Amino acid sequence: MRKNLFAARAVVVALALAFAAQAAAQQGAGANKEITIEGRLARTVEAGGWLIVAEYGKYLILNSRQYQSEPWFREGATVQATGEARQDAVTIYQEGMPFQARTMRARGRPASGGTEAGGNQGGTQTGGAIAVAGRGVTRVVVTGDATVQAQPDTVILSVAVVTQNASASEAQAENASKTDSVVRAVKSAAGAGAEVKTSGYSVQPQYVYKEGAPPTITSYVVRNSVSVTTGEMDRAGAIIDAASRAGANSIDGLSFTLRRDEQVRGQALAAATRVALGKARVVADTLGGRVVRVVEVQEGGGFVRPVLGNLGGVAVNRAAMTAQTPTPVESGALDIRAEVTLVVEVETRE
Q1: Which residues are CB-contacts of 257 (< 8 A; sequence separation ≥ 6)?
Q2: For the purposes of burial, counting CB atoms within 10 Å of the CB of 82, is it exposed (0-12), middle (13-18) or buried (19 or more)?
Q3: How many whole angstroms separate alpha carbon 116 and alpha carbon 105?
Q4: Fold (topology level) of 32-132
Q5: Pick from 53, 211, 269, 344: CA 20 to 30 A from residue 308's CA?
Q6: Above pLDDT 70, what percent of the chain?
């Protein structure tokens, strides 16, 4: 009785194992279906490994060594491969779907690795295909620059009060009084929206040098510089005149710039990009190919070249500035420059 029971249990176990094996085999057969993919060859993080990078994903070539001796097998080459996506395979770096290639070819070339001469292998490749000129992909670096002109919207003016006295404290006191008058005068002339600030201050001893004797201080020169920034361009001449009448005796600098430059910078950047892309297309046409894609864009070298006035460092004669004719100031145009570097992939004939 017990022998019959054990025999029955053994039969049941054997049948269960058989059904499980059959189900596993069917599942494995369904998982490793043959597919055809097309993409670019790329190296893996794992040394010696290769990927096919397609638009719909990455495929890790399990048998890449079989094709590495082919002249077209190199990084960036476009290939077409037929084989099995091995979902049961495990690699160190899961960079893509494991793929066992049965045949592989560069685009426009007969396939390698499979039986091509005898006919259609698996219904995916045609035997006896005629080889045509292959194509490769190379990278080209081009630079474009462009300059756009615009009218400035801001004037920056620097005036100074310079005093000299044998006593340092007296030179400073005189300078402070005159500078206070200058600040009040330029604020009134520049208007409420102007920015007036101290841009520099110095006390310099003046020496007399005699042979065989140490230098002797004869006096002290005190210099106090005031910077005025305003968007009212037509007030520049009036500010200069007001400063000189109040006691400023040196004009250190006059320049025009563009504060609201976003739109003009964008125009210059767009123009520079078009120039760079035009160069890339010229290179591609010369090589008998075409620009495939832009890999990298770098912006650099852009700046606004300010317009400088011609009053820098000029001493002011206050008596002459009392004349009725105001100081004429003309701004001119600004140069806004942009530079763009493009790294592009160019498809060329091999």
Answers
A1: 152, 154, 156, 304, 306, 307, 334
A2: buried
A3: 11
A4: OB fold (Dihydrolipoamide Acetyltransferase, E2P) (2.40.50)
A5: 269
A6: 73
For residue 309, the SS3 value is: coil
Both tokens assigned to 282: 């010229």
Low-confidence residues in the chain, pLDDT < 70: 1-33, 87, 89-94, 108-135, 301-324, 349-350
- How far apart CA 335 and CA 27 sit, in angstroms, is 70
CATH T-level assignment (fold) for domain 154-252+313-331: Alpha-Beta Plaits (3.30.70)
* Per-residue tokens: 339: 């530079």
Neighbouring C-beta atoms of residue 238, cutoff 10 Å: 18
Give me the pLDDT at residue 125, please.
31
**3-class secondary-structure state, position 115:** coil
Q: What is the per-residue pLDDT for 217?
A: 95
Q: What ranges do the domains of the chain cover?
A: 32-132, 154-252+313-331
The pair of structure tokens assigned to 299 is: 């912006």
Strand extents, DSSP E, 233-302: 250-257, 290-299
Sign of CA dihedral 18, 24, 26, 29: negative
Tens of pLDDT, residue by residue over 187-221, are 999 988 899 999 999 999 999 999 889 999 999 99
Do 227 and 248 meet the contact criterion of CB atoms below 8 Å apart?
A: no
- What one-letter code names the amino acid at 271? A
**Measuring CA to CA, which residue among 54, 30, 36, 61 is closest to residue 123?**
36
Q: Determine the number of helices (DSSP H) and then strands (DSSP E) in the chain.
A: 4, 15
pLDDT given for residue 4 in this prediction: 46
Residue 136 confidence (pLDDT): 72
Give the other-Cβ count within 10 Å of 46's Cβ.
Answer: 12
Element of type H or E holding 52: strand 50-54
CA–CA distance from 214 to each of 84, 96, 164 (Å)? Answer: 94, 82, 22
